[in-house]
Write a structure and sequence with these properties.
This protein has 18 helices and no strands.
Length: 403
């Protein structure tokens, strides 16, 4: 039977965490239409997504320390307010430059909802309990890629792409209301004392000196960057290259969420039985095997939508084991500075993802079919596996890692 407090935390934190990703996934089906309406190129519209990720990454290093110093709720409310204002600007954007700028502002706000819930998890739980809550968060979080693209395609069909951002504004206001009325402060006042800029810089230096933390942060960053390569280019590959409709694209995109959900629920039992490092290693192995096979087939000239969808389903199932588990293992040794540690993980992840998306675009994007995107996914899976191997091997030998 699920603990009531654990379930409540999962629902609240999962919904808050999902606001930013929902704002990404919802407008993916509209990106080709947005390019036409704004008289912009595909690369310019994709830049609005890159700007969002850059803001998510860089500003987490602001929200994390602030949440250590002033508690979790106030920085989260400020961030959600900025998210609402930026999304409103996107809805009214007259050109691609304004869209990119407003998406950056929205990202500055949305990153609060990405980093602070992870710190709240660490405030309340550790070990397998934290992994269980992480898996439950992933369950709520995974609803976003199922519903968001479908909702976006429906809004585009009924009212046009600008109303997508109108809906996102409403969702941001709902999240802000949820924080105001339902989320209690999880960081005690006594824990905040002594948190200064110098202390924050010292905490960052401590984290960077920790080879175990560095390796796990990079493992998670490379793993998620493989998904971001898909996120930034899949709508053009599937809609323009393979000829699917926006609604069909939403359905296909939702299959990845099904893989995440199944893997996240399996994750809890596997962590209890085998430990966190074991789960991460197996998830990375499945992720790498499926993406490498997809790359090999693509290089061999196999350019079929069903092959792309099936192997990405398997790959992102493996990622579903990795994504909620790596941060838990990375934060185990750094509970006193969980906000800063969580922020640094998020910064590395988002900046790495933005660089990968830009690299895929530089390789030709969808102009060369699915190959650049698939190469980005497989390359990131390989890097995650290589970087994570030493840290996971050493962590497996410690009782804390087994939980």
């Amino acid at each position: 039977m699920l603990d009531a407090a654990l379930l409540r935390h999962a629902l609240i934190l999962g919904l808050i965490s999902a606001i930013g990703p929902f704002a990404i996934d919802m407008y993916l089906p509209a990106m080709p239409q947005m390019a036409q309406a704004l008289g912009a190129s595909a690369a310019e519209v994709q830049m609005s997504l890159t700007a969002f990720f850059v803001a998510l990454g860089l500003c987490q290093m602001v929200y994390g320390p602030l949440s250590d110093r002033f508690g979790r709720r106030v920085p989260l409310m400020v961030g959600l307010g900025l998210f609402v204002l930026g999304s409103l600007g996107c809805a009214l954007a007259p050109d691609a430059r304004t869209l990119i700028a407003m998406r950056f502002v929205a990202g500055v706000g949305a990153c609060a909802g990405m980093v602070i819930p992870r710190a709240v998890v660490r405030d309340l739980h550790t070990g397998v309990e934290a992994a269980r809550l992480g898996a439950m968060l992933m369950l709520v979080f995974s609803v976003s890629p199922i519903l968001a693209p479908l909702a976006g395609s429906l809004v585009v069909a009924l009212a046009g792409w600008r109303w997508i951002f109108g809906c996102i504004v409403v969702l941001g206001l709902l999240a802000l209301t949820l924080v105001l009325t339902q989320l209690q402060e999880s960081r005690p006042v006594e824990a905040r004392r002594g948190t200064t800029l110098a202390g924050t810089l010292a905490a960052v230096a401590e984290l960077l000196r920790d080879g175990h933390f560095r390796a796990l942060a990079l493992t998670g960053a490379f793993a998620m960057s493989g998904f971001m390569a898909y996120l930034g280019h899949s709508s053009f590959v599937m809609i323009e290259h393979h000829g699917v409709t926006p609604t069909q694209y939403g359905l296909l995109f939702g299959l990845n969420a099904a893989a995440f959900i199944g893997a996240a629920q399996l994750n809890v039992r596997l962590c209890q039985r085998h430990g966190l490092p074991w789960v991460i290693r197996r998830g990375l192995a499945g992720y790498l095997a499926a993406s490498a096979l997809l790359l090999a087939l693509t290089l061999a000239g196999v350019d079929r939508l069903e092959v792309l969808v099936a192997l990405l389903f398997v790959a992102y199932g493996g990622l579903g084991l990795v994504a909620p588990t790596v941060p838990v293992l990375a934060l185990e040794r750094h509970g006193a500075i969980a906000g800063t540690a969580s922020a640094l993980i998020g910064t590395v992840q988002m900046v790495c993802g933005a660089l990968v998306m830009s690299l895929v675009s530089a390789l030709g994007g969808h102009a060369h079919g699915a190959l650049p995107m698939v190469a980005g996914v497989a390359g990131c899976a390989l890097l995650a596996s290589l970087v994570g191997r030493p840290a996971l091997s050493s962590a497996a030998a410690t009782p804390a890692a087994i939980g």
